[in-house]
Amino acid sequence: MPFPDFEKILIENGAEETEITRRILAALPRTPVQQVAPGFQPDKPVSLSRSKRILYLARFKGEAVKPCPGTRGYLCCGYRILHIGTNCPMDCSYCILQAYFNQPYLRIFVNVEEIFQRLRAFVETCPHRPIRLGTGEFTDSLALDPLTGFTRILHRELESLEGVVVELKTKTAAVSSLLDLPFSSKLIVSWSLNPEEVIRREERYAASLEERLEAAVRCQEKGYLVGFHFDPIFYYPGWEEAYERTVRSLLASVRSKGIAWISLGCFRYLPSLRAVIEARHPRASYIHQEFIPALDGKMRYPQPLRVAVYRKMVEWIRRYDEEVLLYFCMENPSVWEKVFAFVPGREGPTLPEMLDRRIRRWWREVNREKGR
Predict the structure, then answer these.
(1) What CA–CA distance (Å, rounded) separates 77 from 134?
(2) Where are the beta strands (DSSP E) in 146-224?
(3) Where do the domains of the chain lie?
(4) Is 302:267 a contact under the CB 8 Å cutoff?
């Protein structure tokens, strides 16, 4: 991916002698390095565009595992966040991180030994299995992996953790490390998808749709379960043809039996994000559409429009596969009822239970293959 050259590397005191720091410095020998105190803040504001060209290597001191920040009134998937960094080298016009973090730079948490100690301690206190984790909430899971080698470390650490699965969410095709490693049933690779015209217009530096699907095929060939997230879905003139074409490309490329799940979520945003989008991405016309305030404080398309969009997406996906697990990312029970004619947890398993069952089924399939 054609990321800009990094302007410099900031290293917090105490973060120098770590596996990831040494790897990054070896990979970028000509990039200037500056030692800084923990919690360093620049004297002058740094633009978001420039901050994406500065790496900040730090020790993470907070909770390594956090629950997904769900909202009352909306159904949450119940996964937990494994915190490995903040911000992203890509520059999607709609990215919520533009308004979410008050700290600049591409922050990489390099004290992985401590992070995994905390993860092991958490796993020991959690009787429920599987434990579903994700690293893509505050950063892209794989965008910086060629620099950090985090996937290799994660793969190594997961060997000693029973009943844990980590979903790596990405908009890249950076799967080389995964493909070089032995297959692990504790890793799922997933991609955020949009029509190619949306990717070109709104997802700067991200991989093309074709590159993402090719990477997914390669991961499936290695044995990995893959996932896909149509999130955010945009409503615009010609959206139906564009998204139907994208669904068709997806399900013509990958084996549907090797798909973990497909999630759907229409574009929504924090009110504070609008001014950021207008200033940084003046050509992003979608921000001027009709939105209404929702229970979670975000602005959303009106519910009748969301329901119509979701029904179309479900119809197109079901033409190719009747059984693949579909779910909404952060929608209310009314939308579930109107689109799927059921509400998780009301007449059967909850949404987390639905996803857990999919993982258990996959693990049984992997074990059967091993036994042959």
Answers:
(1) 11
(2) 164-170, 187-192, 203-204
(3) 66-103+112-371
(4) no
Task: Determine whether domain 66-103+112-371 maps to CATH 3.40.50.620.
Answer: no
Exposure string of 285-299, with b = 16+ CB inside 10 Å and e = fewer, is: ebbeeebeebebebb
Q: Which two tokens stand for residue 79?
A: 């996964």
Residue with tokens 């009301």: 346
* pTM over cut 0.90: yes
SS3 107: strand
DSSP helix/strand/coil, 39: coil
Length of the chain measured in residues = 372
CA 119 to chain centre: 19
Is the N-terminal amide bond of 4 cis, ω within 30° of 0? no
With contact defined as beta carbons under 8 Å apart, do 284 and 94 qualify?
A: yes
pLDDT tens for residues 239-270? 999 999 999 999 999 999 999 999 999 999 99
